[in-house]
Amino acid sequence: MGQVFLNGQFVDSDRAKISVFDQGFLYGDGIYESFRSIGAHLYQFPLYYQRLQQSAEALGYELPYSRPQLEEILLELRRRNRLTDAYYRITITRGPGQVGFQRELTGDLTCLIIAREFKGFDETHYRDGIALRVAETRRNAPEAINPKIKSISNLNSLLGKLEARAAGAFEVIMLNNREQICEGAASNIFWTRDRWVFTPSVATGLLPGVTRSTIIRLCEEELDLRVIRGEYRLQDLKFSDEVFITSTSLEVMPVVRVDDFMINQGRVGPIARRLRNVLHLDMGKTAVSS
């Protein structure tokens, strides 16, 4: 079963125990980050740690480990589980507490780190492209829930995923409460027109993914494409040459259909392919230089 890191100790995953009074379990009071390593290189980890800090500060948590300490823990977990290219998830909750309105919000945090071998998705998805469904569920308004907090209370995204599954789609496009394109349930979205690349801006209420920022950089620095962040509506996709979604695990996933509308006559375009290749090169480059 392998090992996990739980509250300062490496333990067998089938023996790891968290209190039934943990406030993450009872109230969704927790944060998380997921990321990868290429060999022993923790790809883009400084950016993920920065976002973890941002989430922690918003909820009044004091992170239990510094970035160098976490890096050491992560690599030791990789070694103990004999992983090559790892997929990690760090989960931090407010820890054990009481049930009820007057519960205390102070105490020892729960920190759980899981690592498994990164498997990725079947290559047929990248070759043939995927279908998206426009969700009826709207993205949480940023005035209600700060999108910069990567919260384990992920019901909004789950409802979108359930819609995708019911429709036989790979992922959904979630609109905000102003009917603007926001993001997927667990991805960011891009589309192209000629030498221009478009993606929703943070003003729409999206979570600014680390892979999103990497793709923006690679578009501009490696492919000489200009990226325009803005507030867009669904009809903008109908004039696109290509559509693709991105995330830590998806990398660059090409889209050939949105609801009943075909993108690029149902064919995967060259930019998505090139971007995924460039992303792989960037992963390898940073692994060698670190």
TrEMBL record:
Domain of life: Bacteria
EC supergroup of this enzyme: transferase
Cofactor(s) named in the record: pyridoxal 5'-phosphate
GO cellular component: cytosol
Pfam families membership: Aminotran_4 (PF01063)
Reactions performed catalytically: L-isoleucine + 2-oxoglutarate = (S)-3-methyl-2-oxopentanoate + L-glutamate; L-leucine + 2-oxoglutarate = 4-methyl-2-oxopentanoate + L-glutamate; L-valine + 2-oxoglutarate = 3-methyl-2-oxobutanoate + L-glutamate
GO biological process: amino acid biosynthetic process; carboxylic acid biosynthetic process
Pathway the protein takes part in: Amino-acid biosynthesis; L-leucine biosynthesis; L-leucine from 3-methyl-2-oxobutanoate: step 4/4; Amino-acid biosynthesis; L-isoleucine biosynthesis; L-isoleucine from 2-oxobutanoate: step 4/4; Amino-acid biosynthesis; L-valine biosynthesis; L-valine from pyruvate: step 4/4
GO MF term (any one): branched-chain-amino-acid transaminase activity
Family from the record: Belongs to the class-IV pyridoxal-phosphate-dependent aminotransferase family.
Name used for this protein in its record: branched-chain-amino-acid transaminase
Annotated source species: Geothermobacter hydrogeniphilus
Lineage: Bacteria, Pseudomonadati, Thermodesulfobacteriota, Desulfuromonadia, Desulfuromonadales
